TrEMBL record:
Name of the featured protein: Coenzyme A biosynthesis bifunctional protein CoaBC
Protein's UniProt keywords contain DNA repair: no
Chain segments carrying region Phosphopantothenate--cysteine ligase: 11-222
Domain DNA/pantothenate metabolism flavoprotein C-terminal residues, every copy: 6-213
Amino-acid positions noted as binding CTP in the UniProt annotation, renumbered to this chain: 100, 110, 127-130, 145, 159, 163
Residues of the full protein shown: 180 to 401 of 401
Cofactor info, note text: Binds 1 FMN per subunit.
Amino acid sequence: FGSATLAGLRVLVSAGPTYEDIDPVRFIGNRSSGRMGFAVAEAAAAAGAQVTLVAGPVSLPTPAGVARRVDVRSAAKMREAVLAASDTADIYIGAAAVGDYRPAQVAERKLKKHDGAPLVLDLAENPDILKDLAATHPHPFLVGFAAETHDVAAYAQDKLSRKGLDMIAANRVGAGLGFEADDNALSLYWPGGSEELPRASKRELAARLVQCVGMRYRAAKP
Ligand code: PMT
């Protein structure tokens, strides 16, 4: 930490899971703890950026140096918060694990069991925040994350081009890495280049990621 790679830049970071309500007591969520995204927010602030952090439902304190934190629950609310803050952001780093689907209808009352009959939930697809940002002009320098269990490089490079991103940080999930874990390992890809960040703590990786984002940003927008 400590260098001023991002001095003068406004960085928007999303972190954590989203919860999609089924009824007043149940939801569909995922295992993101928010640790990777919070570490990125902290590292960006330490690198001199003015940081806004949009956080899904996590139980983490706001990292040192973060100027503004917006707490949200669902993918729709995360999208609203990210789009509202994106006008004044130079860089967006999407570390959140945004739910791809939500229940098509949220039941007003707690769902009851029906004598062993299966419960069928209709799921509607959530909008893709990164894709929506890429479609607005002008838009911030876009850094996505990709969480994959296999074929990490191929899926990550596909997401880089399909979502119109400037960089993607891919992590293999499972085996003490990725979701919930203290450690992670990242493969960074951008159009025409890549860099491996081997296994380390999420704080160390976040600092290295932020250095790389700073360099790519300056190269793309001299
Ligand atoms: O929170 P931790 O426990 O520390 O775990 C960290 C992490 C594994 C969650 C994190 O490092 C990570 O990989 N985050 C992205 C996980 C993910 O949802 O990947 P994805 O392949 O589904 O999505 C790819 C990218 O699109 C992500 O930048 C995501 O924020 C974005 N996306 C996805 C869906 C959607 N509707 N809108 C989006 O913007």
